[in-house]
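Readers outside the structure-tokenisation community will struggle with the description of the input data as it stands. For illustration, here is how one protein appears when written out as sequence plus structure tokens:
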Amino acid sequence: MSIRTDNKWDWEIGSKTSWWGTSLPDLWAYRHLASGLVRRDFLLVYQQTILGPLWVLLQPLLTLITYVVVFGKVVGISTGGTPPVLFYLAGIILWNLFNDTFTSISSTFRDNAQVFSKVYFPRLIIPVARLTGYLFNFGIQFGLLILVLAYYFIFQGLPVPDVKWLLLAPVAILLVGTISFALGLFFSVLTAKYRDMNYLIGLGTRLLMFLTPVIYPVGYVSEKWRWLVQLNPLTPLFELFRRALLGQGVVTFPLFAYSFIVTAVLLLAALLIFNKQGDKLIDTI
């Protein structure tokens, strides 16, 4: 009886961990698992609810009404000539993409400890699936924004933005999603080791919102403190998103380049840490 020694395995699981983790072809091989996880997460959130997926639209609409009344009418924050409904709605849906993706991915190991300890698959599949799910939700909310924009274009005489700027809107969306994905990966390692990091994440996201031009334009901030807002890499992306769709926003190439570089560095560092620490954390959760 002879034994073949030339077999090549698709996967070889060992005790060593790699900084680079799983390759893109290997992740692509698990694309069906990722799509199943997206469907699972969607059903878990909206199954056995009265309104179901309508909550995807109802949540930003209720937030929009609150912002228009509180910040527009009561506080009187200027939106720089942009209709408050459009200004706040654009900021709300882009912030929801960042906030929901970041907080969800940051609990990757805590929420999936039992699955990770029983079945092997690339750990990165879970964060990718969650990012995909929230991009899907953003697409629905973005459709609502387009309908409201169409109303203002047709019935209110709002100027149509330049096509060149419109093409940059997906860039802003992609970079915001990438930042939330990278921060989520990094903090997923920390929340697995230190449970109190969850409180810091909740507090940090609430504070970060006030350093991000969600409820105010950058031009509304005094020159003395504007640098603090612009230090936030999300700021140029929110301004670019509004400039592309609404024709209003302070966008300069140096600020955009700064945001792009910070995003790339965050993503690289987060992937390295997540891949290196991922398998080691299973025994400590």
Notes: The chain has a mean pLDDT of 86.
